[in-house]
Write a structure and sequence with these properties.
- Helices cover 59% and strands 5% of the residues.
- It has two domains: 2-47, no CATH class; 52-171, Arc Repressor Mutant, subunit A (Orthogonal Bundle).
- With 179 residues, the protein is mainly α.
- The protein has a two-stranded antiparallel ribbon with strand order 1-2.
- It is built from nine helices and two strands; from the N terminus they run αββαααααααα.
- Helix 1 (2-9) runs antiparallel to helix 2 and helix 6 (105-123) crosses helix 8.
């Protein structure tokens, strides 16, 4: 809404292409761009026009959507899924992500999966076997090993410590300030 209002105030016609992405129909002047940047900052948003940074954000958004918001994890090869969703070769995406983020896409996914597992454990609606299935793990042992590597705790020990603070989604998988 803040983006739409800022663009309307500048008299620009636009199409919302995707979440966080806008296609402006006119050529934008440097002055209009600066006004848009300021208006977005006032709303707590940032104008991104570095194609690499935009692509990194898209990768993160696809992962967060997949792990945190889908009913069940996608049962296809994630590299194919990400490539298809973003229309880029997975090797290119993986190399760019590692270079810019200082971590791999796989580690970013694991961090988010573990955070989602914590959430599911805390909600206490599913047992560990059901969580392993929901999160697309081959076995409870695989989930437990990965969970312990990331958190230092077994899922059952974590369940006993339900009060343990969860990390905000924005901080998960970033090389600075994770669990």
């Amino acid at each position: 809404m803040a983006v739409k209002n800022a663009l309307k105030e500048l008299g620009l016609h636009f199409i919302l292409v995707d979440l966080g992405e806008v296609d402006i129909m006119e050529n934008i002047t440097a002055e209009q761009r600066e006004h848009l940047k300021v208006a977005l900052l006032d709303s707590g948003l940032e104008l991104m026009d570095d194609k690499r940074a935009v692509l990194i954000e898209k990768i993160k958004n696809v992962i967060v959507e997949m792990v945190h918001h889908n009913g069940e994890l996608i049962k296809v090869n994630f590299s194919e899924y990400l490539s298809g969703k973003l229309n880029h070769d997975y090797t290119y995406l993986a190399n760019l992500f590692s270079e810019v983020q200082g971590t791999t896409i796989e580690q970013f996914i694991i961090s988010h999966k573990v955070e989602r597992i914590k959430e599911l454990i805390i909600y206490d609606e599913l047992n560990i076997t059901e969580i392993a299935y929901k999160m697309n793990y081959s076995s409870v042992a695989h989930l437990s090993n990965q969970f312990k590597k990331v958190t230092g705790l077994s899922p059952s020990h974590f369940k006993q410590l339900r009060e343990k603070r969860r990390s905000p989604i924005e901080e998960v998988g970033n090389s600075m300030g994770t669990n």
